[in-house]
Amino acid sequence: MRLNVIERDPDHDSRATPVVFIHGLFGRARNLSFLQRQAAKTRRTLALDLRSHGASPHGKLDYMAMVGDVMETLGAYDALPAILVGHSMGGKVAMALALQHPERVAGLLVGDIAPARTGHGQSTLGEAMLRLNFPPHLDRKEALVLLGSVVPREDMRNLMLQNLRLDDPPGWEIGLQEIVDSMPNIENWPYVPEGHVYNGPTLFIRGERSPYIRPEHYPVMARLFPHYRLETIPGVGHWLHAENPQRFSELMLAFLKDIP
Q1: pLDDT score, position 66
Q2: Predicted model pTM
Q3: Maximum mean pLDDT: which of 153-167, 190-204, 234-248
Q4: How many domains does the chain have?
Q5: Are residues 132 and 169 in the same domain?
Q6: Measured between alpha carbons, how far is 114 from 213 in angstroms, rounded to an integer?
Q7: Distance between CA atoms of 152 and 13, rounded to whole angstroms?
Q8: Going by DSSP bridges, is the β-strand pair 105-111/228-233 parallel, antiparallel, or unpaired?
Q9: 72 with 142, same domain?
Q10: Which residue of 21, 135, 150, 217 has the fewest C-beta atoms within 10 A of its own C-beta?
Q11: Domain end position, chosen among 137, 162, 181
């Protein structure tokens, strides 16, 4: 499946390896626009809408299918090998791709997710959003009120708002049914054949207040990604790139600087 892509190029010619941004569950490419703009100062960059997200085609989600989508899309854009930057579900896609196709990945940066069945806790939320009844007409303010009935957190409401179509008629723009049906796959970690290892440079960045990367994950991280390094951003949770974009960007740019 060919995915929707937002591409940003540097102001000057660059032969540096391109950087690919992969968003998390219920996100889309433009969520990572700040980070993409920072990387695009020196490198070609591509941000992807994963299947059933953003403006990409809809389909059931599992990690091997999403890896195939990313490979097909980057191949069409002549953007391989690439450095992958993935958050949450997108981090799992990036890790699975690096393990399956290590020769195509020049570097791997994973935002706040481990190579394990960690869960996302969004099954109930997704089902509640499916049951929302949309009126014939909806503006942004009314949409936030409607979402408030099932999404208590303001930051999550703003995230979900971008997945709504507000006219002709109002409804979900994303493949919400496909996402909800796929939640067991999304919350899982894909089966990776024994012996698959990614030996390239790898950086995990975790939020201090997030439960998604824990000490019990370190052994499997070390086995699959022998050259990994772990950084923690103090005082933030799972949405670390949104809560402290400056620090995340600093860590990302330092990581990129060491990759040709």
Answers
A1: 98
A2: 0.95
A3: 234-248
A4: 2
A5: yes
A6: 5
A7: 46
A8: unpaired
A9: no
A10: 135
A11: 181
Spatial contact of 29 and 73, defined as CB atoms under 8 Å apart:
no
Contacts of residue 22, Cβ cutoff 8 Å, sequence gap at least 6: 47, 48, 50, 70, 84, 85, 86, 87, 90, 91, 93, 94
Please state the length of the chain.
Answer: 260
As given in the structure block, the two tokens for residue 34 are 């700040």
Of the residues 162, 181, 200, the one at which a domain ends = 181
Q: Give the residue carrying structure tokens 């049914």.
A: 177
Q: Round to whole Å and give the CA distance between 59 and 145.
A: 29
Say yes or no to pLDDT of 192 above 90. no
CATH code of residue 79: 3.40.50.1820
For residue 174, give its domain range. 123-181
Q: What is the DSSP letter of 217?
A: G
String of DSSP letters for 122-145: -HHHHHHHHTPPPPS---HHHHHH
What's the CA gap between 26 and 35, in Å, rounded? 18
Burial class (CB in 10 A: 0-12, 13-18, 19+), 219: exposed
Q: Please identify which residue in the block is written with the tokens 């481990």.
A: 114
Residue type (1 letter), 154: E
